[in-house]
Amino acid sequence: MSTDYQRAREELGRRLRELRVDSPGGRLTGTELARRLAWPQSKVSKLENGRQTPTDDDLRAWAEAVERPAVFPELRARLRGFESHIRSWRRQLAAGHAPVQETWNTLVGESRSLYVWDNSVVNGMLQTADYARNLFERSAEFRRSARDIEEAVGARVKRQEWLYRPGKRLHLLMHESVLWARVCPPEVLAAQLDRLQGVVGMETVRLGIVPLDAELRLSRPNGFWILDDRLVTVEDLHAELWLEDAETISLYRRAWDTFAEAAAFGADAQSVIARVRYGLDR
User: Fold this and answer.
1) How far, in Å, CA of 111 to CA of 232, rounded?
2) pLDDT tens digits, one per residue of 50-81
3) Are 206 and 163 in contact (CB under 8 A)?
4) What's the rounded Cα separation, in Å, for the pair 211 and 36?
5) Phi, psi dihedrals of residue 31, rounded to the nearest 5°
6) In this structure, is residue 105 part of a structural domain?
């Protein structure tokens, strides 16, 4: 958990404690507030000490219990402010994958330049519908989220229209292991590799493949996106990080440039893809 995130959570906890102590009906102890809310007293303590992240419902209930319902919008704004940096998959996927994809469509649509590193699966900007469908099905099963598979696939494929708009540029690096990953049936993977062969040389796409035997000056991180040097997103198993400070963005751009030094581009990238495709046929 980032220091900035934890600091913001502790500040929200101090604000909650302040509201409890200064309740219009008189100072409330933590035990008294817990009784009003029908919560364990430990939950009140964890929230006030920044050891648990509240939900919107928690904040609304707190504001009403301390007789300050009008303060709820302020508390919710504080929560949104620091949660924007750590976006848990549990919350994002509560309504399914399609809303998340639509959010990404808006985010990408507002961008002119993308620098992307992928270390696990083929990037969504270049996925075939069948490849994307397999990923969404496996993700929904693993995360036990709503199964809006076709809507999610449609939204992801629609995002790829961005590649055909003037002034756009996708700088994409993938490790060769991504091409070998059996995250879908062999025939689906074969079609996906053919798709990658076809985009090499597109005016709006610069595709680099880091070969398995490439010498690396940096250990391989999780996949990340850099959008117009204004935002970095990093995907982890439990959450998606959104990072906006200039120093962090610069750090990830240096990482991208480092991997680009080891990558094969153009005809060399096609040769790497063709080698994997040949191995799949065998």
Assistant:
1) 12
2) 999 899 899 999 999 999 999 999 999 888 77
3) no
4) 61
5) -65, -40
6) no
As a whole number of angstroms, the distance between CA 219 and CA 244 comes to 23
Dump strand ranges (E) for the chain.
86-88, 113-118, 169-175, 205-210, 224-227, 231-235, 239-243, 264-265
For the entire predicted model, the pTM comes to 0.75
Asked whether the predicted pLDDT for residue 134 surpasses 50, the reply is: yes
Q: What are phi and psi of 98, to 5 degrees?
A: -60, -45
d(CA 190, CA 281): 8
Q: Are strands 224-227 and 113-118 parallel, antiparallel or unpaired?
A: antiparallel
Sign of CA dihedral 170, 128, 273, 141: positive
Cα–chain-centroid distance for residue 159?
16
103, part of any domain = no
- Are 118 and 76 in a shared domain? no
**CATH at residue 22:** 1.10.260.40
Q: Which CATH number characterizes residue 232's domain?
A: 3.30.870.10
Compute the distance between CA of residue 65 and CA of residue 24 in angstroms, rounded to an integer.
Answer: 11
Beginning with the edge strand found earlier in the chain, give each strand of the sheet holding 231-235 in spatial order.
Answer: 86-88, 239-243, 231-235, 224-227, 113-118, 169-175, 205-210, 264-265
